[in-house]
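Hi all, posting the design record for the shared folder.

TITLE: backbone redesign
STEP: 1 of 1
STRUCTURE INPUT:
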């Protein structure tokens, strides 16, 4: 063993490699993305690594490899599990031959997500074992346990780190390469009674799953990570149940205090019932400290009812813990102080700090999406229009002054929602904005639906040649794979033509007049039509020289700032100026300026 300083996601990847990982697939999504990326960087060529088009495809690929006896892992964030849930629910019944871990990174807060879903709840729903690490070191160790349990019980297992574990750093002990587990898949063995799901098979499998989970509850009660920390005050008849990063918060809060008995649950499903009974003996009250759902709280209430224990269980359901949001060291300490009657010393007067500037999220300076939204906005002035957005950095098009995202639900939804609005309001020009990566992930079926059902809409594909929001991962349109291969790009225009869309126009949004004319022309047609705004992400290109303002020509109308909202345009002493450190020289502001006072940067006719 030796020590390395690693991010939680990197530790998970390294642990999976040490466990004999053969295949890893996934779809990028914060806070999970670095697991697959670290695996790719650490790959000696023996592991197949893939960014799949979406989470469903990733899970199905990994399942096929696990049928062959391979150790496989799938990575996604919590909303990605919704996409993968169809194969997941059936795979829970079919099972696997090799170890298969489905890593789902939850995002309490949420910090960078649409929802605060709790994968522990999904574990109970899908009847799959779930592992819940509380630190970077434990994430490294526990991922190896997860593979072992998966292989032993022939079932996929869920691995549920949260943002603070995924993106936390720590010095941890890691194995030497000679101590890694080596897994050699034996290959697929045909057996239709095992691998082909039929109602009779499912009925038998359901009974076996219930029996297995009952057995696992007992096994997990002896699992070392399900740990009972003895009370420092042996007379205390109160206890704390916690999990994940909240265990670290709880231990931090107990420093310097006479701590009660603490039960850390590392396997929320199947719940370690026997260990819980041992913990509950002699207690009158228990506080559950957890994120996000009251999973442990409900499990303890069930155990107390089943065994007629006179223990009061408190937590989210009793409003002793917040029902939503992320916990912190401070919030957990306050909850424990309230529950245990600790004194809370008065805080020393805080030093007066200057007011921090408000910094709402905005599109980057030079982002081509800004030009795309502005072109559509200018083209549709005075016309009844609706703009359905999607998941990506272009969701930030909802911010003022652009104000060009009227709806955003989940990946790919905008294409179908546009169709629904159009059916009710046929006099409305309906636009669906979707990025190139999201188009491949989940919008193609919506486009097919539009063509088949004779919708009247404009599909706008914002093609910046990357998956920008999650860190510029490749996708089918980039011509690169995570195995380092350069392959034929999947052509978006060819796909659109192939499904029956007749009008497909491609234009650079930074050629503003041309882009506006294109939108007017295409929007005037009937049926399903598509505009591809193609311009690379500003982060991927070498910036042009920054724009410059001719002070003698500038009339300080501030139209550039009022209409574009580009962070490269600032006010200094009441006058418009260019922030050279941010400006990429895209030239959009020069095309908007009514007096042509802005020059330099890119020149667009």
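Okay, here is what came back for every position:
SEQUENCE:
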């Amino acid at each position: 063993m030796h020590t390395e300083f690693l991010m939680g996601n990197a530790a998970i990847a390294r642990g999976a490699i040490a466990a004999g990982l053969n295949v890893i697939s996934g779809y990028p999504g914060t806070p999970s993305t670095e697991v697959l990326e670290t695996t790719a960087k650490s790959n000696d060529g023996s592991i197949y690594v893939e960014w799949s088009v979406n989470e469903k495809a990733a899970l199905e690929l990994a399942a096929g490899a696990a049928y062959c006896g391979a150790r496989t892992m799938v990575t996604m964030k919590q909303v990605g599990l919704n996409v993968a849930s169809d194969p997941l629910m059936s795979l829970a019944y079919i099972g696997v031959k090799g170890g298969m871990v489905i890593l789902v990174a939850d995002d309490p807060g949420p910090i960078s997500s649409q929802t605060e879903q709790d994968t522990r709840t999904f574990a109970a729903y899908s009847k799959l074992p779930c592992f819940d690490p509380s630190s970077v070191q434990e994430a490294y160790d526990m991922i190896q346990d997860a593979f072992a349990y998966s292989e032993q019980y022939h079932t996929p297992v869920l691995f549920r780190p949260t943002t603070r574990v995924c993106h936390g750093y720590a010095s941890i002990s890691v194995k030497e390469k000679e101590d890694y587990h080596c897994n050699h898949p034996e290959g697929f063995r045909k057996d239709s009674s095992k691998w082909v799901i039929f109602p009779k098979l499912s009925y038998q499998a359901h009974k076996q799953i219930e029996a297995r989970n009952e057995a696992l509850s007992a096994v997990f009660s002896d699992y070392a990570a399900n740990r009972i920390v003895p009370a420092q005050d042996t007379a205390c008849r109160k206890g704390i149940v916690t999990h994940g990063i909240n265990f670290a918060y709880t231990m931090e809060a107990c420093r310097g205090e006479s701590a009660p008995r603490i039960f850390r649950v590392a396997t929320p499903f199947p719940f370690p019932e026997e260990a819980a009974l041992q913990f509950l003996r002699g207690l009158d009250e228990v506080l559950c400290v957890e994120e996000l759902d009251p999973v442990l709280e409900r499990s303890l209430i069930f155990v107390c009812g089943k065994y007629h224990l006179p223990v009061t269980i408190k937590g989210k359901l009793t409003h002793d813990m917040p029902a939503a949001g992320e916990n912190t060291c401070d919030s957990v300490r306050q909850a424990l102080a309230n529950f245990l009657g600790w004194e809370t010393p008065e805080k020393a007067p805080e030093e007066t700090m200057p007011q921090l500037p408000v910094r709402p999220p905005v599109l980057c300076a030079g982002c081509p999406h800004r030009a795309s939204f502005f072109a559509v906005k200018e083209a549709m002035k005075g016309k009844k229009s609706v703009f359905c957005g999607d998941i990506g950095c272009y969701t930030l098009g909802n911010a003022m002054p652009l104000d060009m995202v009227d709806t955003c639900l989940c990946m790919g939804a905008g294409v179908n929602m546009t169709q629904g609005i159009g059916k009710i309001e046929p006099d409305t020009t309906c636009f669906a904005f979707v990025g190139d990566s999201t188009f491949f992930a989940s919008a193609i079926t919506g486009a097919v639906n539009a063509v088949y059902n004779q919708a009247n809409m404009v599909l706008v594909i914002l093609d910046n040649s990357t998956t920008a929001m999650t860190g510029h991962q490749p996708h089918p349109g980039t011509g690169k794979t995570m195995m380092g291969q350069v392959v034929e790009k999947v052509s978006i225009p060819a796909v659109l033509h192939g499904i029956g869309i007749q009008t497909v126009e491609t234009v650079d949004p930074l050629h503003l007049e041309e882009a506006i004319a294109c939108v007017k022309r295409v929007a005037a047609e009937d049926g399903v039509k598509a505009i591809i705004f193609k311009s690379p992400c500003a982060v991927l290109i070498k910036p042009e020289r920054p724009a410059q303002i001719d002070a003698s020509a500038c009339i300080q109308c501030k139209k550039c700032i009022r209409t574009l909202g580009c962070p490269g345009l600032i006010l200094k002493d009441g006058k418009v100026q260019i922030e050279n450190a941010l400006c990429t020289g895209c030239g959009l502001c020069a095309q908007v300026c009514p007096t042509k006072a802005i020059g330099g940067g890119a020149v667009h006719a």
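COMMENT: The chain has a mean pLDDT of 93.
Let me know if anyone wants the other runs.
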